[in-house]
Each structure stands twice: as C-alpha cells, then as structure tokens.
Amino acid sequence: MPAELRRAAAALAAGSGPVAVDTERASGYRYSQRAYLVQLRREGAGTVLVDPVALNDEVDVLIEALAGTEWVLHAASQDLPCLAELGMRPSKLFDTELAGRLAGYERVALGTLVERVLGYRLEKGHGAADWSRRPLPREWLNYAALDVELLVPLRDALEAELASQGKLEWALEEFDALRDAPTPEPRKEPWRRTSGIHRARGARALAFVRALWEVRDSIARERDVAPGRVLPDSAIVDAAVAAPIDEVGLVKLPVFRGRAQRRLAGTWARALRTAAELPRNELPDPSPQQDGPPPPNRWADKDPAAAARLSAARASLGALAESLRMPVENMIQPDLVRRICWQPPADISVDGTTAALRAGHARNWQIGLVAEPLSKALHTPPPTG
C-alpha cells in the first residue's frame, strides 16, 4: 500500500467534523460507472485526491479512517453506488442537493447553490470529461478538488436554514433513507429505453431494436466503452425501420457507412437476420403490460373515478408543496400517489391511507404531511353523466 495513502488516511482520521466526499466517473466514455477519482476533504486534514485505479481499488485504510464520520455529498445517489463498489459506505449522510430542494431552492446544482448560499463562484469546465484518462491533467485535478472545497460550509448553512424552516428532521430522515436505499433491481427489457424507439413500429421492428441493442451492449461491456460510442441509438432505430436484408443494404444507412461501423457490419447484419427469422411468438410485445397504472392521460377513458381522485390529489398536494416551498416529488413520490389513486385501499380513511403510504415506503415525515389531504382526495366522488 502506498505510503501516501497511509499518510492521507491518518490525516483524515485525525481531522474533525464531517468529511466532504465526491467522485469523478467517465460517463459517456466507459461502460462501467466506477469511480476514477475520489475527492475527500476534512477540517484539519485538507483535501485528498485518491486514484482507485492506481490502487486496484484497495482502499481499506481509507475505509477505516472514515469509519463513523458523517459524509457530505452533493447529489449522493450519483456517487454512493460507485463508492460502494470500493467498499466505502457512510455511517451518516448529508446531501446538499437534497437539502437545497427541501429548503426551497429552485436551482440546486452545486455551483448555483454555492454562489447563492455562500457567495462564491466555482470553476466549471471538466465535469463531463473522460476521467478514465491517465495521467489526469493538473487543471482537472484542481477542478475536482474545488468540488469538495466548500461542501462542508454549504452543509452547515443549509442545515441552519432547514432548522429555521422546521424541516431539519425531515431532511435527516431523507438522508437516512438515501443512505440505506437498496441497490436498484436491473431494468426489465432495458432495450426499450432506446432513444427514438417510438419510430420502430410493430413487433418485428422492435425485435430488430432488441437484437442490435443486445449485441451493442455485449461489445460495450467487453470493451468497457459507453454503448453510444459503439453504436448510437439513432443508428439502431434507423436500421430497425429500414430493415436492410444484408450488409450491402446496411452500410448504405447513415452511421453504418462509416469506417468504424463497416468493420462491424457483419456483426450488425447477423443480429438483424436473427431477428428477422424469429417466429412470431418470440417477438417482443409492442404494448407490454405496465408495472402499475396506465399513463394518467388515459385515466379519464379507462377509469373516470380514478382520474377524478388523481386530479383532486394533485391539486391538494401541489398546493401543500407550494406552501412548504419544496418540489411535490420530494414531499411524496408521484408514482406512489398514482398507484394509490388508481387502486385505493379498502379503507380510505386517514388511517387506511397512512397504511397504504407506509406500505409504499413513504417516510414518516411525508406520511404526516400527506395522509390527510390524500385521504380526502380518495373520497372524491366519480364524475356524473
């Protein structure tokens, strides 16, 4: 283990107060979402930049140094997964982005909040860079260090503001829920999120999208390259719509006629042929069953009573969120509201609604705010005529 890492860990352990934490990934360049740089700052220790790649992800001494400390992150949900891959998990968490939302700030990007709350302007310019590059340029490292420079002062100012608004306990409950959130389940049929897939009409065209997406994903994973750099979504959809029957037809399409794609033309063409030969019962469903209620714009036709309940709920919860100066989606998950309005509990009293909210993993502070207005919305009579 490098002596520099041991010295940095000792300094962090000897520091005081919360630890500001950030990571840099290579989204848009790499398939993985691993951390290519970890930034840490603590009072009395200064700023530490850690290269997990050079350390082969061996950061046990760092994990020990941070044990029991509060971590301060901005938009923690983006950083916690790649930190967990390194074995780094916070005992206590403060998320300055989430704190800003609860405190009523409409714009909660780190630079915006720092300027608005603390009066400093952060340098911009390298957030979307390829952080897998080695060696990292000095100006990139300076930029990365600035991301943790003011996180703790920002945390302190937002904590005071939340306390003055009577929202601090709400925020602490949210931070705990964020820290303890389980790893999301892999998406079912992730290929359906291909940008522009609405242009691929019919089951066979969707089979072409699926085949190309799956081959692209395999290549991207093997090369550790972002899928869009292997083949853009737009090219996948173009091929699904045109449905060329061989390589000759394929390479006439935009993107596929380029030099890089010509080298893979046989691979893409085989995927398309395989999809073209699938029996009808193996084709993807053009209208797969949704997990949950249908889109709200269809409710009035499918279930007018549910549409009336949802309209009443949105109105009352929107007014409540506005009075509290926070986004309604932070006050209560809109998907949970839709599910309850679509299929209300047998008991639509406040107690019954509370039970439904709790079953949907709403936090205690959220339930205390929304159970009563949501219960009233569930009592909305169906439209007449």
Features:
single chain, 385 residues, alpha/beta, Nucleotidyltransferase, domain 5, DNA polymerase, domain 1, 3 domains, five-stranded mixed β-sheet, 20 helices, 53% helix, flat, RNaseH-like_sf, 3'-5' exonuclease activity, Exo_C, nucleic acid binding
Give the topology.
Blueprint: H1 3-14, E1 16-24, E2 37-43, E3 46-50, H2 60-66, E4 70-73, H3 76-85, E5 92-95, H4 96-103, H5 110-118, H6 138-149, H7 151-164, H8 168-180, H9 203-223, H10 227-230, H11 233-242, H12 247-250, H13 259-263, H14 265-276, H15 299-302, H16 304-324, H17 328-331, H18 334-342, H19 350-359, H20 364-378
Parallel strand pairs: 1-4, 4-5
Antiparallel strand pairs: 1-2, 2-3
Multimerization state: single chain
Number of domains: 3
Low-pLDDT windows of residues:
none
Rounded mean pLDDT score = 95
How many β-strand stretches? 5
Sheet with the most strands, sense and barrel status? 5 strands, mixed
CATH homolog superfamily of the largest domain: Ribonuclease H-like superfamily/Ribonuclease H
The CA-CA distance between the termini, in Å, is 76 Å
Q: Which term fits the overall shape?
A: flat
Helix content: 40-55%
Strand order of the largest sheet: 3-2-1-4-5
CATH class descriptor of the largest domain: Alpha Beta
Gyration radius (Cα, Å) is 25 Å
Structural class by sheet pairing and helices: alpha/beta
Known CATH architecture of the largest domain? 2-Layer Sandwich
Strand content: 5-15%
How do the helices and strands follow one another from N- to C-terminus?
HEEEHEHEHHHHHHHHHHHHHHHHH
GO molecular function: 3'-5' exonuclease activity; nucleic acid binding; nucleotide binding
Biased composition (Pro residues): 285-297
Organism: Actinocrispum wychmicini
Domain HRDC: 202-282
